[in-house]
Amino acid sequence: MGAKSDKIILYTSQSPIVIKTLLKQKVCYVKREYIVKKYQEVSSIFLEAYNWYIYKAQNIVKKPEYAEYPFWTFTKADYAEWYPGNYMLTLEVPIEEVIFFKVQDWNKILNLKYLAAGEEDEKKHKAMLVKQNISIESDIFTKPFYPNLKSEIKKSWGNLFKYDKLIKSGAIQEKNLQVGLWELRKEWIISIKENTF
Q1: Measuring CA to CA, which residue among 86, 75, 37, 30 is closest to residue 53?
Q2: Per the structure, how many domains does the chain have?
Q3: What is the pTM of this model?
Q4: 54, 95, 133, 180 - which has most CB atoms within 10 Å?
């Protein structure tokens, strides 16, 4: 997985301002205003998922006072969405600073969908959607008719973190993971590469 004893190699694509801040101040945090600016008119949907993540993730890895939102990093560079003008950071991070989860699981949460515990749970949920005549699952969040279902979906999101303990304990080996960090530290940087394409 790219781990060296109690550390792990991670990749993240970041904007020039993040790199400048990180190199100058030796640490960088994500602020709420950056999320709103990045996602603009759909930021409220992202913030629903992000706020849930913060509430739960701070119980896994303590959130520093100045961190408002997480940085997303990956165990494979391919997943890091390296946009022109951005920089690819390769980091070596202490394992106790990271929160592991699957990329596709986080994408379900971002789309305000149910995150099943397994195949049977998924089948049961899909049958319930058909029975309730719900064709667009995100309607459960965006329309006021489904408070109980909304609560069930949010509860299912706890399945996001099921891999964290298993990976940290060495019980499973997973290669393609997304990793949440509360901060970026200059001392973690192995390399910085600019995307000039």
Answers
A1: 30
A2: 1
A3: 0.86
A4: 180
